[in-house]
Each structure stands twice: as structure tokens, then as C-alpha cells.
Amino acid sequence: MTSPGELERTLRANLRGEVDFGAAARALVTMDASNYRRVPLGVASPRDAEDVAAALRVCADAGVPVVPRGGGTSIAGQATGTGVVLDLNRHMDALVSVDPAARTAVVQPGLALDRLRAAVRPYGLTFGPDPSTRSRCTLGGMIGNNACGAHSVAWGTTADNVAELAVTTYGGVPHRLGTGWSGAPAGLRELVAGNLAVLRTGLYGPFGDFPRRISGYGGMDALLPERGTQLARAFCGSEGTLGVVTEAVVRLVELPPAPVLAVLGYADESAAAEAAAGLLPYGPLTVEGMAHDLVGGFAAGLPRGGAWLFAEMPDEGAARVLLRGADAVDALLVADPAAQRALWRIREDAAGTATRLPSGAMAWPGWEDCAVPPARLGAYLRDFRALLAAHGLHGSPYGHFGEGCVHVRIDFDLVTREGVARFRTFSQELADLVVAHGGSLSGEHGDGQARAELLPRMYGADVIALFGAYKDVWDPAGGMNPGMLVRPSRLDEDLRFAVLPDTAFAREVARCVGVAKCRSADPGGSGVMCPSYRVTGEERHSTRGRARLLHEMLAGEIVTDGWRSTEVAEALDLCLGCKGCLSDCPVGVDMAAYKAEFLHRHWAGRVRPLAHYLLGGLPYWLRLVARLRLAAVVNAAARRLPLPGLTRARPLPPVSRDPFTRWWRTRRAPAATGPGGGGPAATATPSGTVTLWPDTFTEYLAPETGRAAVRVLEAAGFAVTVPRGPVCCGLTYVSTGRLDRARAVLRRTLDAFDASGGAVGAPVLVLEPSCAAALRTELPALLPEDPRAHRLAAAVRTFAETLEEFAPHWQPPRLDRPVAGQAHCHQHAVLGDAADRRLRGRAGLAGELSGGCCGLAGNFGFEPGHHDVSVACAEEQLLPSLREAPEGAAVQADGFSCRTQIAQLGGVRARHLAELLAEGLTGTVQAP
Questions:
Q1: N or C: fewer beta carbons within 10 Å in the chain?
Q2: What pTM was estimated for this model as a whole?
Q3: Residue 289's domain is classified under what CATH number?
């Protein structure tokens, strides 16, 4: 038998693409978005169809199985394998051509769906199937799973929209599939001819056929002569078990120019489900359903009801006709595209948000997309809820109600023996329930390992035998994705949770379910996650990739050196700690916190990189410089001598000679109290007292921001106080993984803050967003038993929040100019910026700040090896937005790192919002 090393060498000799049998490469593909984990021998990334054929020849000669993989978002385990994983997303991701007149496109299998949709949108066209993962799922994966999405009511499944396929089988033989028998493997025509009766009757349930019958090789009826012998259509949904798609001709559909969304409210889920089928005669593009237990806090913008249908119509006239015929409790028509996108985001993120139940328990895939005929949906959901209750399980169904397809994640216990046994029993009983309602075990995502074992409950013995023969005609050696669809693995084997230790950190890492929103193909999206992946395009630099490496580190099978792992350290090295994943990831993965914990353990008992001591200990060093009055000396030395352990490509920001608290202690208190009064000894004023937190950046590097904030706060009627002793949020220690040091610093901070005698109930205003976020989140997390930590975290406010909440009637100066700049990552992820937007609007600052990440991210941009990524992150959104800013625009960035990046790369001075307002108070607004 060929050894892994020999196989790797042979593949390298025969492929132009990359071949990697290393621990990191294997660890990144052990899982998809399912509950399953299978360890491959290695990964090959073919550059073209010739490479694919070569890989399949080599693996067939070696007797090693192959599994094709695109975006890795499959939820039934079919994108995992034990042999060689073919990564089709890395190189084979081209849009080869578009023919607008014929309404077709030629695509490679690794092309992300949204890239295709964006390319054909200028022609008024789109690709009809649109799974919620469309920003990162690939066309090859959609063909493999026969994916559908929300708009299948109008435009059908992927199989309905594929005209031709180029396919290579195990052993390297190419086939071109379309309509007719040309390109078919030997023996297929005879197999079909001998099983016409089975194909005509055995595939359908007791209520006949329906569009979402995806399970098994259910598309084989397309091979019937009366259906035109559609080879390409029949191949769709084969889940990589027959061959590898290397190119596809897909059909495009006309994109409605002004669709309108009708949101219909119903008393409960059953009422919504029973109403869905009745909307189909009105010609909707989609009919999506969800209930209150999924929507949760987002229900405020929806019509009255306990469940809702989202019915998208081609235009407003059609929407109004539908409203008149719909028997809903309440309804809402949404024509504005931005408002529609906000509502659709609730639905699109459901694959992740459904993972966390209202109780806080985690829920998992496994029964994600079974489907029944739409007319049976109401009755089926009632029975389904009863079955959940009988097993003591919980889930929040939602999905494509117009086609009877239900998505749900369930709080299975997939760790203990008893829990896994319940998972198996429940799965068997649910399969019987779906079949009793005439349904399909899979309605769009494929069966994979999650449901293939149960296919005999859906299809008779003759159909199952035919499926096996179909597989054998295409793949007689059985090398393509074995264990899926026919001769399947058990549904309770290979569960990804079984290899993890029972620790809090392992449970956090397992939170990543692999929906891969962090791998979005939309580089200009509204979120932050994941800056380094957006720059490098490498899986290991995505949030999911890092979570997978941590998972394998804890498992210890592939990554064997535990917390000392170099593979994990290298992947986390380019994590900017932006916390974008905390808000943008549908399941709230917090990779910045995971990185801090890893660094804490990785460097335990060892000498750390010098940057950890220099930048990680920045508050200590700056306090020492201030106490010894060495700012001028340090600044001169920094200009002339590169500091060891830091990059030479970036100058250090100068240290202020006059720290903020020194200025505060020596300034003369204003003569008047009330609006415009206050000061160190001020009495209470109409807006009350506010404690201004002298964070490290404001204190030593940008005291002008603190002085500006004092001026604005006093103008707004606040009495301003400042803690008397040194305080620190511990951020730099946390970001470098010095968690014990962070806890010590935070305890001293709480002592100093208590000694300052701050007013009870008064807000604590933190000007630096990263410090405010650290006080709100890291402080109580690191000191959970200290009630003072929770009180201080609850008191923290941003600049805009303080003014809005405690001085609501104060009118800021009118600046009346456009604004550009950077919204801080931690503001986006932890604090929120709604109050900032409103304050800017009241001040007449028009426009939006850049999304994404500035790329400097505290210590990140100053560390060796990070400069190119740091600059590329800035070029992704920030720097283009500055170049496109209107003339005379005010440049705002509340984060010190953001202002530094803008100054160094953009050549302009950005200011904190407090500075802009302070300048407006005196009429001395500066040019950028």
C-alpha cells in the first residue's frame, strides 16, 4: 500500500497546484459545517481540469479515496473525507464567460455564488438558486448538493439551472454531460433501460412528487426518456460520490428591477405554515417562514404576530394583490432596498443564530433541511414540535415554507453516550415522520453522513439497489467520497465533539459551526470580520480556519504539540484582535479572546517575543516616561534608533510632554458652574457628574482628545471628574496574552477607582473605543468574582452615549460639513455606534465612516512581519474611502490606532468626535 509520504511526492510530481500533507492543511479540512469530523491524508489544490484528472489518476492508482471540497459549508458531512481532499476553491474559481443573450454563464467549481451574481447583475440577470451562504458557497458545492435557497419557488433548484457539466471520474476520465446519452459512462444507458418502472414510480412518496425531493440520487428520474435524458441534471445532488465537476454551464434568469417584500404576520407558526401554500398562486419569488423563537429581539421591526412569512413579489402591484388575498394578522410592504436587506439579514443569519437557543443552549445541525409537500407543512410542524418535546429537545424551525422545506438546529447532546443514543433514536423517528408526510429527508443540503443511513426508510429496497448500481457505474472502484449516499457510514459515527476535552475553552471553540460567514466573498461588506482573511484569502486566516486549528489542537490527533503548537501560533499571528467575529459571526465566535488564551498558555514559563513586553507593557512604559519626564528623549531616540522587536517600516507615534491628567490637575477651574462650568472641583450641574477615564492613549499619546472632551462635556452641563490614581483597562496585556498580568493591573485599577470616590451611578466616559470595549467585556470576564468589575463595566459609556443618555437636550454645535474616516472595530463589535451616528447627524456631519478594519489594531501593525498585511487591510476600505471623500470633509476616527494609520498612510490628521465638536464650540474647525 502506498504510504502517505509516497502519495504526497507522487501528487507533487504530477500536479502544478499545491499539495500539502502537513498538519495545518489537514486540520483545516477535517470538518465542514456539520457535526462530523474525518481526518484526511492530505490536501491537493488543483489549478485546472488537467490537475484534477492527474490527482484522480494518482489516487486511483494508490487506492486512496478523494473528496471534492468547495467552500466547506455543507452541513451533513459530505465535504469531509479520509483520503485526499481536493480544494477546488483555491484556484479553480473563475467566471469563464457570460453570454447575456443566451442567459448562460460558464463557471469553474470554486467560484463563489455572489461573485457570479455580481458579475451578471449589470445585464439584469442573476443565478436563481441563492442559499443563505451565497457569499462564500461555491457553484461546485451547490451542484454537488443540489442547493436551492429562498428563491426556488420562482427559479427552482440548482439542477433546474444547470445546462452542461464537465466531469472527471476517479481514475481521471473526463465526461461532458448535457442532454442525451453523449458523455455517459459505460453501462449507464443499460442500467436506466432495465429500471424504467422503478424510476417512474419508486422515487415518489404517497403524495406524489414535489420540487424539494433532493435525497439520495433522487434526480435519476431526469434520465427517463420522457424527461429528455438529462445527464447533467441527474448528476446534480450526487455529493461528490460520482466524480468531480471541473466546469459548468449554468442558466441565468432575469432579475426583477424593483421587487417588493411583503412581510405577513400570523398568530403562530402553524398558521404561517398553513398559509404559505395559499400564497403560491400569486406568483411570489419566495415565501420564507420563521417564528418568534428564532427572530427574538429582531421582532420589533416586524408586523404583529408570533410568526412571519416573507413573500417577495416582482413589483409593488403584485405585492398589493397578494396582501389583499393573504389572511394575515398584520402586514408590512417594504419597497426600500436597504430596508429589505436589513430584514433579509435576519433570515440569512439564521443558520448561525439558530445555533443559540433563547435559553442560551447551543443547538446543532443534523436535521437541517428536511422537506414535505407545502400543503402538509402545517401538520408536519405540529408533529415535529411534538416529537421534539417527547425527546426533551428544543429547536427553532424556519425556512422555505413556500416549498415545505424546514431548517432547524436542535440542542442535541452529542458528547455523552446517552445523548448520542438519543440523537440516533430521534433521527430514526424523525425520518419516519418526514416519510409519513410524503417528504424528503433532504430538501436542499444533501444527505451526507447525517441522513444517508436513513434513506431506506424513505425509498424502497428497489430504489436503494438502483442507487448502488448507479454509483458503481460512475465509480466502480468506490473511490469518490465513500461513506456518503450509498453504503453509508452511521449517522452517529465521526462526531466532531467526541475528540474534545470537557473544558470551557473547548466548548467555546466548538461554538464555530462552520457556516463560514468569515469567508465572505464580499470585500466591501458592512462588517469587519475577518480583516486578515480578506487580505490573504487563506483559510487559516479566517475565523473558521483558526477555530478549526484550535479544535484540532485540543483533539491532539493531527496537531500534536498542544498549546505549544506552531501551526496554531502561525494562524493566530495575523489575527488583528479586531473582535469583528464577536458581532459579525452568527454564532458569536470571539477569536480575539481565544487568541489571548492561546498566547497566555503558549508562552507560559518561556521568554516571550520582545514586542509582548514593549507593546504589551505600553501603559507601564509610558507611565514611567511621564514620571521621569523623558518624553523628549524618548521621541528623539525613536526617530533615530529602531526599537528592537518592532517593525522598522513604521514610525512610533510621539509621546506627549504634557499628559492629560497633568494638564487636568493644573488647569484653572472655570469661574462659572452650570453649562460651560465644572472642572476638577465643580459642583453638580444640570447634566450631572461624569467620570472621564484617562485611558493610556488619551493620557500619554493624545491628551488633546481628553482636553477637547472636557470642553464639550462642560458645555453640555456636566461636572467632570477624573480618577486620582493611575487606571488601566488591561487591553495591551490581554491582546498579547499576558492574562495574569492583566488581572493584576485590573485589580489595582479597581482599587484606584474606588479610592477616587466616583459618584455612584455616574457614567464612566471612556474616549478610546478599544479601552471601553475592554472594560465592558474583558474586565468582568477576567475578574468574574469581583462585583466591582461588573459595576464598572456597567457604568462604561462612550462619548456619544454619555451625551445622549445624560444630556439629551444639549444641542451640539453645527459643523455642517461632510465626514469621512474610520469606525473603530471594537465600536462596531462590542459598543455599537448608533449613538455616534445620531450625534454626528445633530452636529451636521453628513456621511458614513469606513467599515472594515484600519489594519493597525494596537500593537499588531508595529510587530515584525505584519506591516504588509496592516497596509493591505487599510487599502481594503479605509484608504479608498479617504481618497473618495468630498473636499473639505472632516476626518473622524475615535480610535488612536485608526488616527495613527490614517496619518501615516493617508497623510491627513483625523480627529476624535470630541475634538470636532470642541472645535465647533469655538468656531475653529480645522482642515484635515
A1: N
A2: 0.94
A3: 3.30.70
